[in-house]
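Hi L., both proteins are below.
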Amino acid sequence: MAFLTGKQHMGLAAVIMAVSIFLSRFMGLIRDKVISFYYGASIESDIYFASFVIPDFLNYLLAGGYFSITLIPLLAEYFSKNDEEGWSFFSSVLLWVCIAITAGTCVAWIGAPYLAKVAAPGFDEPSLARLTYFLRIILPAQIFFLLGSCFSGVLYMRKQFLVPAFVPLVYNASIILGGLFMIDKGMEGFCWGVLFGAASGSFMLPYLAVRSGGFQWKYTLRHPGVKRFVLLALPLMIGQSIVVLDEQFVRIFGSLTGDGAVSLLNYSRRIMLVPVGVVAQAAGVASYPFLAALVAKGDTKEFNTTLSRALRNTMLFIVPLSFWMISAAEPTLRLIFQQGSFGASETLGATPLLQIMLASVAFWGVQQMIGRAFYAHKDTLTPAIVGTLVSVLAIPVYWFLGKTIGVMGVALAGTLSVVLYTLTLSAVWARKHGTGAFDGVIRMFLLSAVLCVPAMGASVYVVSNVTILLEGEPLLGAFASLAASGTLFCVLYACTSWLIAPKAIEPIITFVRGRVLRRA
């Protein structure tokens, strides 16, 4: 346990979180691969994906996804006084969180038949009945998620990233094993896997790590820090960002566009989130404690420098990755999902959905960083207001585009909403804190996009020709297309960058050179 609870510096922390998120996304794809193999894009898989709408919303309502963000500054403050004060604050928060999520879960569990109609208004009565059953299995997992988030907050505050890095891996593994163990019962086994994974991975792992680091339980309902915590978390509870509601909107409005639509949207979105998680989310999670520390010191100049560097590096990696993935969307879906009940027609149906979603990846990357910049300043209200306004504006867009274009309209609405949210949030940041954080960011984004054009054109050509050449071997053709197009894209992008803008890829060269010299 001592190895798992060691401290990491910012660079190593970013690598740890990037590897964790990559493996988590990869396991998530394996999970969806198992689902698509047995159930394809069917009403059974639609019901399973829709069963997360209400539990996830309950989690968002209690700011579960932001517990670490809201807790870290306050934990750092109280622990800086003394350990007893820190554990007293943490224990009080933990107790109130337990009361709130347990009460909310019980209410949702009882009202599951009515909430199912909200989650999937396009389902018929038998499907709603099964959705209700799935809801009641998954709902209790939220208790473990939120309590586990509290313990993870302590680990992040201590700059101990290894245990939180293992959490999503255990969670995804539990879902896969649960589904395979009960495969004869439809998607029910996957639901039980969610519950077990939340209990064992999301809660138990962080709890044991914190306990080994000297956790002291102080039974108290009253602590002055609880009020401050609630005031920080309240905007996140009331205000819902489009980046967390997009998944729910996709499921809700997707249910109105026909059987299998929710599944196709979910499979596409899962792949789109891989570059977001590996590059942007990892950088955001790793940089947040350091940004918060700079705010505490009042070092505005270094804060802007750190944030600007993180944004530029994010653009440097995420833009070419998203361009290549757009060009290789069809073989990607074919290689990952096209087997069993997921046929060629499903692959063709999901391809434009994935390409539309990938167009927003760079904007996802920016909002991951800017959102945490606000939180580092203990400003949770501004992102909440912006997020809520954009979410409200997005609802008629999802409805209109879904009704007029169908499932592609739902995907397009999600992309437009994320772009609008990111641009608005960035504009608000610039107005409140100046433009220092964006120095060189727009230039890096545009330069990377321009440098990608020749590589993307070559990648599209390779994908189309390899597909024709190996038409009778769909999986081999998909693998060959990805390998050939990916290699060619990287070579052309590197050569173009070296000839036109060598400084643009300097961080990559420095990173690779450092790794080579270290091994030597």
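That was the first. Here is the second:
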Amino acid sequence: MFAVPNDPPSEVANRRDQMFPVLTDPEVTRIGGFGTVRRFERGTRLFATGEPGPGMFVVLQGALALSQRDGMGRVVPIVSLGRGQFSGEVAQLSGSYALVDAYAEEDLEAILVPPPQLRALIIAEADLGERIVRALILRRVALIETGAGGPVLMARSESPELQRLQNFLTRNARPHQVVDVTQDGAAGALLEHYGAALADALVVCPDGSVLLNPTEDALARALGMIDSVTHNELFDVAVVGAGPAGLATAVYAASEGLHVVVLDCRAFGGQAGASARIENYLGFPTGISGQALAGRAFVQAQKFGAEMMIPAQVAALDCSKAGPGGELSLQLADGRRLRSKTVVIASGARYRRPAVPRLTEFEGRGVSYWASAYEAKTCAHTEVVVVGGGNSAGQAAVFLAQQATKVFVLIRGPSLASSMSRYLIDRIDATPNIELRPHTELTQLYGNPEEGLNAVSWRDKQTGLEEKRPIRHVFVFVGADPETEWLAGCGVALDPHGFVLTGQTEGLAAGHVPAPLESSVRGVFAIGDVRSGSVKRVGGAIGEGAAAVALIHQHLAADGAVPTLKGEKPVGDVSKRR
């Protein structure tokens, strides 16, 4: 059984009951309409770690054993499932790679519910679907906590390559384990065998393949996070960007029967995913981390059938066939093309890099643009620097102060009043180990590629005094520039700062009157931080995502297009689809 070390005994028992519920006979009968009965002899393997999962198995007779396995060959039993229990975790919603092994512990009879039918079941049987989804999510959480089913990362604890790969896996909610080669002789020998340097990281994947300092794309492909197949289908909606705006579009569009694909070059969550705690989002009075909020939306979009391609870099948008009855084409960095009736630009904005020498050299080696639980842990009992005076900087400072001995917040102006929400200013004032440095700029970074950052200096612009401190962690939140380079040459109009203009009528083709969130190109919409004039708030981004779906329906109706349903039962008010 999965360990849940941080919960009290009563909560552990309750959580296990929710992770592995026993369905009643009537509930099993209801599931039967969505799958087929399969029989397996004792010892038969049903699926394996690192291979595409076939779907969810519901046990009718016999026993189904689940175990976790890593690339080092270590196998640990998880649970034995009996009648009325079911296999699977979040990956089964999309049919992506399994994170555990399963075999028939006894002669087994079970209902196999493939991913499309599993999504249809969850939607059609709301109360039962809620229990199933809760179990799938809790199982993924448990896998992340134990690292089961994911790659093993071998490196020195201070390795910048290790930090880069851990950051990527954490943001994508992928389980993984870390082995410190200075504490494990066998791991150290393996690292030496592959000719690794002190700063390198070796990755052993569940299928046994070994990667040295892999790129994020290479690691994602090795773990089955993205496919390499050619997509010839015509999507109804292609969403570029998986932040709150893009995920909201995916949830609303897919729930209304549209064929949706979502692409993001790095991870779901966008800039909001970097927020340690959002406390002014409607409905969460105690606050919620940006990653947790985005994670829920990510699962929700998959529940309704949205296809996720993360990480996948969009290189260009081809609008040459745009217009009534036409289509749009996305060129991916790997050479593939995706065709869609509409495109939603939700690529957001990236944090600016201040003009500090050697800044890019230390990115991922002491310089970060987000603050997660992983970064907070590495900052324990040390001094850190946060650069910036907006809400993201304030959230990071408060969060990091729980672990760091001292958090220096460097801002260019005299105070935080003009750039930060009042509740965050009050929180910073009440936190004794946060020190605000107004009229101050970061000037120098010190260190080397092997060990990363080891010191920084900053200057008070009013006094001219410069201070140097042995600080190894700098977090930068100094405004953002739009991610719109991939739109070059497609005809989408931008404002002088590079943000997408929407609802404008100047300079448009005759007969094209864009909707409020539509760009200068017919069928291309823009929402969230990338849109000119957006409010730069999570709530606003989600609202724009929902509003864009209504406009997409109007666009498809005007073109006489029929939504490309995927064979799953439609959800929502059908009357609102046109």
